[in-house]
Specification:
CATH class of the largest domain: Alpha Beta
Shape: elongated
Number of strands: 14
Strand order of the largest sheet: 2-1-3-4-5
CATH architecture of the largest domain: 3-Layer(aba) Sandwich
CATH topology of the largest domain: Rossmann fold
CATH superfamily of the largest domain: Response regulator
Number of helices: 8
Bound molecules: calcium ion
Radius of gyration: 20 Å
Structural class: alpha/beta
Strand content: 15-25%
Distance between the termini: 33 Å
Length: 263
């Protein structure tokens, strides 16, 4: 790689407007992956790039993605096979990126479970519009009663959190708070907004209440009873809280908790 070429860090994170969408881009052609990567990152998406199928599956198994953009012609594993493997693990939206204009290939890809496809060459604007459309559809589906957060399933109708057979029941207020927080992952909610939406407390200034903090504390505790792999509710000091399914990183035995610099 040339000196003057920006090195692509495949796990680069970027916070833009609280967007916490993470995309896995699977593409072996550097010319394309670099352009798409930069475009996505500049539009606020966390983006990881896999240059082959093996790497794609490794990355996919190692973290949560909101969307996969999958080139079908890869050097090692055919894209269709990757789509099938991903489908066995997850219902994440998949957009196929393909030079194949053969209708049969496209039909096959869609049958495997891709949500959309784009034929090369394509414009970045078209790609972004398709991404938005696919994510919008998924968000609609999310409003249903079931929500998957990492390994944790939330059943909003019964108020039960479940992870690997373990279950905990939420109180109605915990459930309501969780529902508001998860409605827009990554969004920083002000304390006053949450108190108003969940407890219908309008006059936040005059009513000094700890109800929000206590409920957050209890929710966190319940999540931790199920799994310590993730942290879900994050404190934005002096502002409020936001929701993001974040894997707890372990380095040299030290758990890096509450990394404020990312907030
Ligand atoms: Ca290719």
């Amino acid at each position: 790689m040339g000196k003057d070429k920006p090195h692509l860090f495949y796990h680069e994170k970027r916070e833009v407007g609280g967007n916490s969408i993470r995309i896995l881009l699977v593409e072996d052609e550097r010319d394309i992956s670099e352009v798409v990567y930069l475009y996505l990152v500049n539009n606020g998406y966390h983006t990881d790039v896999a240059e082959n199928g093996k790497k794609a599956l490794e990355l996919f198994e190692s973290r949560d993605y909101d969307l996969v953009i999958l080139d079908l012609m890869l050097p090692d594993i055919p894209g269709e096979e990757i789509a099938e493997k991903i489908r066995m693990m997850s219902d994440v939206p998949i957009i196929m990126l393909t030079a194949k204009v053969d209708e049969e290939d496209i039909v096959k890809g869609l049958r495997i479970g891709a949500d959309d496809y784009i034929t090369k060459p394509f414009s970045m604007k078209v790609l972004l519009a398709r991404i938005d459309a696919v994510l919008r559809r998924r968000k609609g589906a999310r409003n249903a009663d079931l929500l998957n957060l990492g390994d944790v399933k939330v059943d909003f109708s019964s108020g039960i959190l479940e992870c690997e057979g373990k279950k905990v029941r939420l109180t109605s207020m915990e459930l309501k708070l969780l529902s508001v927080l998860t409605s827009t992952p990554g969004k920083v909610w002000k304390r006053s907004e949450l108190l108003r939406k969940v407890w219908e407390i309008e006059d936040v200034d005059s009513i000094k209440t700890r109800v929000l903090d206590v409920t957050v504390k209890n929710l966190r505790k319940k999540f931790r009873e199920l799994t310590e792999k993730y942290e879900f509710i994050h404190t934005d000091f002096g502002v409020g809280y936001h929701f993001e399914t974040k894997e707890v990183e372990k380095s040299e035995g030290n758990r890096k908790k509450h990394r404020r610099s990312e907030g």
